[in-house]
Design brief:
single chain; 38-stranded mixed β-sheet; 559 residues; 9% helix; mainly beta; two-stranded antiparallel sheet
Length: 559
């Protein structure tokens, strides 16, 4: 049965949290319409240029006919505003999704307004060398630390957006390099902490963009204690093949998901792979999923693998300079050129780095470049005041290019606690390479190197047993209470070897899928998918490992 535009409008508004005002209306854009029409279902408009002229009000919906391609650059700007109860909705009408072909510019630009829902669209640009823009850009350039509320983005795919090594100061605010699939945040001229509150991005995909898949950020102002963006959730999103810009040498490019200038943020059930391959900056490298200059961030049940770099980093996960009170848990990384999980503070970082936790994660064969590792902890500057790393499994095989499972580097990375972890190294990889830090403590960890020599390097000296390490350094002296992971130490070597081999082989062999595009040609390696596709490729494999462990060795998990 065919539903009318009015009936669909009522359903759509209810889905985002309330009925629209009695005066709210729908505008339909259809390739077979005409720009002198009134925008109704019977008489639709035709172009994005005409859509940009509409006097949108709270509760209005701007809908593009699904399955059609619209060329142009959609702009919704102040004084247009929606509310959480009556947001302005931008999306598709009909089965599937409409495509916005942004060409050389930005696909959807929400400027200085809140109360917006963007859903069910494919947005693509013309790629490096032809595009300088963002797929979906939600930008606050208002001076004086103004926070705008309520943004929802769902089931949107962005690809083909490139940046400029500039950065560019545009006529509305500044500065930006662009090149993001999705950007949400503040770029005011006065470098105040203007930004957004209450933002949700769900079931979206960003690929073949140059600088970022998904970026939250704000003005760089180290003297400010506040954060530009508050209460942010990124869930069920895929970011991949965001390449990096080899011409941009000032900082990193080619990232998957970055929460920067965010307080109270969650990244959950997301994946990042094959990002960063062309980043050539020595000043900073790309990461799959990470946070910087942020507070109270949770990264949970995510997967990052085969992320790359032509310079530094290239890791899976990262809490970088200025991150505090944050947790990475139940995440999986493997075969990243940089660290599987990096905890790091750099010179001049805003805010302090500390009170961060990594737990119940798995890293396999990460750290293939630049002396990094499955878990890497270090400081080259900034205030570093404590991390706790526990109940993780870290595996490194030199045969696979991973030279060490764990590394601690730099100076004055204070109060590191590393306990209850299973650290596995084979084919000549080191279990740990660490430099002494104030308050660093290793205890109740289990180490296994199979038939290969046992090797922990501490302050440049190699130790071939835990007893030797304990006697010389005092590390692994505090036994504490045994954790489930620590019971691995009691397993016969042949059982542990067999279990690790089968668990890792099963966990790393699953194929990866991504959504591709409804209305545009997908990548050569993509699979056909609908606008709402729950298939996320590989299952997060700490769960797989613990399930297998419970079956094979139930005593290791306790009662």
């Amino acid at each position: 049965m065919t539903q009318t535009l009015v009936a669909l409008s009522a359903i759509g508004v209810l889905l985002v949290g309330g009925l629209a005002s009695a005066t709210a209306r729908d505008y339909l854009i259809d390739a077979n319409g005409a720009d002198d029409n009134d925008g109704s279902e019977q008489y639709p408009l035709r172009t994005i240029s005409r859509a940009n002229e509409l006097p949108l009000a709270p509760g209005d919906r701007l809908l593009f006919r699904a399955g059609q391609v619209f060329r142009g650059n959609l702009v919704v700007a102040d004084p247009v505003h929606g509310t959480a109860q009556a947001p302005i909705v931008i999306g598709s009408l009909g089965a599937g999704r409409a495509t916005i072909d942004a060409g050389p510019g930005t696909g959807v630009w929400i400027r200085n307004c809140g109360g917006v829902v963007i859903q069910d669209l494919v947005v693509h640009g013309s790629g490096p060398g032809k595009n300088v823009g963002t797929g979906v850009r939600v930008e606050n350039t208002l001076p004086g630390t103004v926070t705008l509320d309520f943004v929802r983005i769902a089931r949107v795919t962005c690809s083909g957006f490139a940046g400029y090594p500039g950065p560019i100061w545009n006529e509305y605010g500044g500065p930006s390099n662009y090149g993001e699939g999705f950007f949400i945040g503040g770029r005011p001229y006065d470098f105040s902490k203007s930004g957004y509150r209450d933002v949700r991005i769900d079931d979206c995909e960003a690929y073949d963009n140059q600088y970022y898949g998904i970026l939250f950020s704000g003005a760089w102002n180290p003297g400010e204690e506040a954060f530009a963006n508050i209460d942010v959730h990124v869930t069920n999103c895929l970011t991949h093949h965001n390449s990096g810009d080899p011409a941009y040498r000032a900082n990193h490019s080619g990232n998957g998901i970055l929460l920067e200038e965010v307080q109270n943020g969650v990244i959950e059930h997301c994946q990042a792979w094959e990002n960063g391959a062309l980043c050539a900056s020595a000043a900073g490298g790309p990461v799959g999923i990470w946070a910087a200059a942020a507070d109270h961030i949770l990264i949970r049940d995510c997967l990052a693998y085969s992320n790359r770099t032509a310079s530094t980093d290239g890791g899976g996960f990262d809490f970088d300079g200025g991150v505090s009170n944050s947790t990475i848990e139940e995440c999986t990384s493997h075969d990243n050129e940089g660290a599987g999980i990096l905890l790091y503070s750099y010179p001049g970082a805003p805010h302090y780095f500390g009170s961060n936790v990594v737990r119940n994660c798995l890293s396999a064969n990460d750290g293939k470049k630049n002396g990094l590792a499955g878990i890497a902890i270090g400081r080259h500057g900034g205030r570093f005041e404590g991390v706790e790393v526990y109940n993780n499994i870290i595996f490194a095989s030199a045969k696979a290019g991973a030279g060490r499972a764990v590394t601690v580097f730099g100076l004055d990375a204070r109060h590191i606690q590393f306990h209850g972890n299973l650290v596995v190294a084979s084919n000549g990889a080191h279990l740990i390479e660490a430099k002494s830090q104030p308050g660093i403590t290793f205890f109740s960890n289990a180490y296994w190197s199979g038939l290969n020599p046992f090797a922990i390097v501490f302050d440049g000296k190699e130790y071939n047993s835990v007893a030797d390490l304990r006697a010389a350094t005092g590390q692994e002296a505090a036994e504490g209470g045994e954790t489930p992971v620590a019971t691995f130490a009691k397993m016969p070597v042949e059982k542990l070897a067999s279990w690790l081999d089968s668990a890792l082989t099963a966990a790393l062999s699953a194929p990866t899928e991504h959504k591709g595009s409804d209305a545009a040609a997908p990548r050569a390696d993509s699979t056909t998918a609908t606008a709402s596709n729950d298939a996320k490729g590989e299952k997060s494999f700490p769960g797989n490992l613990l399930e297998m462990l419970g079956i094979l060795f139930p005593s290791a998990l306790g009662d």
